[in-house]
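Dear U.,

For the methods section draft, I wanted the exact inputs and outputs in one place so we can describe them consistently. I've listed the two proteins in the order they'll appear in the manuscript figures. Please don't edit the token lines directly; just add comments below if something needs changing.

First protein:
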Amino acid sequence: MWLLASFYFRADVRGLENIPAEGPVLIVGNHSGGNVTPDTLVFSLAFNTYFGVERRFYQLAHNLVMLMPQARIANLRKYGTVAASLENSHKALDSGAALLVYPGGDYEVHRPSWDSARVDWAGRKGWIRLALEKNVPVVPLVALGGQETALFLSRGGRLARLLRLDKMFRLKVLPISIAIPWGLNIGDFLGHWPLPAKLTMKALQPIDLRKEFGRNPDHDEVYESVLGRMQATLDSMAAERLLPVVG
């Protein structure tokens, strides 16, 4: 995995010193790469190298991702990946762990490749309620490059609604992409082999929501402020990039 992260994706992970070394913390990141998300792999490796495996670290993933053959083969649970649910979120933070969540979920991870440098959480604010309820700091995590690992064409939101996937599987999208080895890839249910795009990630300064936004923070204000900081960082990272995939 280190060879994959270091040489194939040429990973550059910055700002790990901004993550508290102990105690519960909610890490909120932008999500990229379809159902194969190399940024999660890269960050998990970097986190465990920096803090040591003694520092508890969990990542939330969609239930269907956990059921994919690749997830079972790789035994993602062994590395701290658990199904996304409020119960699992509470258990992770109550254990004193760092918890990585992707508010944009399947909506953001399947955005078109030309929106690679855009944070798009579709207005989802559940992470704010969670951070306030558990009284934990929030660390924004910005990633760039994952959306260049395939040519993502469309989320396929209308198609998902037509097939009632939102009702049956909580799927808001049925993505369409061009990816190895399938060529035209609809759904990405079997995953794909990612292109060797350069991955750059940066953890920002931790945010104490009540200290910064007041005792009863306005969720809309928090959302806009955190996304604004993340988007500004993502814009700066994108400006360093010469070419897609190449970096």
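Second protein (the one for the lower panel):
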Amino acid sequence: MGQLREGRELDVSSESRVLSLDAVDVPVLHVRPDGMPRAGLVLYPDVGGMRPLFDEMARRIATHNIAVCVVEPFAGVAAEHLATIESRLAYVSQLDDQTQLEMLSSAADLLVVEDGVSRVSVLGFCMGGHYAFKAAASDRFDAAVAFYGMIRTPDAWKGPGHTIEPLAVADRMCPTLAIFGSADHFTPPADIEALRAAWAGRADCEIVVVEGGEHGFVHDPDRPAHRAADAAACWDRAISWVLG
């Protein structure tokens, strides 16, 4: 996480919580700076879900005077489906878009009620970036950041609960920053160009393509694909986008 620089508000508190929805109880981590935050951020992890990587990420984001709520995407899913990354990927087709959006919206409500923020963004990585695109069109968020989110639903993820295609709702998205790597096979150039065409004429949406970047090059320094300098620049851009 060294490429996500710390801000000036180093006094940060965190608390594990549970959001009780009609369909599921959702584990979240609520992290906030001391004093009044400037903005709120709902953080959607990658397919690995909540773990220490995202605890530290939320802490560092909070030092930029941002209240953060990290959401567990696989809330209520049986443990046998979560044992490996492969089993998690296999389960994605069974996720339900409306439930996921309700989870993200409820996390945003928590930030508004408990932290007094009026601006709330959503940010996600990989699968989380895919859902950040969907959430950006839900009328709940003021801004969104999608790190290498899938622009088209992968065939292996398609299921009855996947009813929202990012390209189909691109014109309804809130101001969105989409960050991709040019060598990421999950977001091929044709998909990126399709999103660029969908956003044609929209000055409030932006696409950043990092030359040579592979999938996951920003958020996890333990990945072979990690690119420190590019990650630092992308994080600075993302924090500015969230703050508005």
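Candidate sentences for the figure legend, describing the second protein: The chain has six helices and eight strands. Helices lie at 52-62, 85-91, 97-115, 127-136, 189-198, 228-243.

Thanks,
Y.
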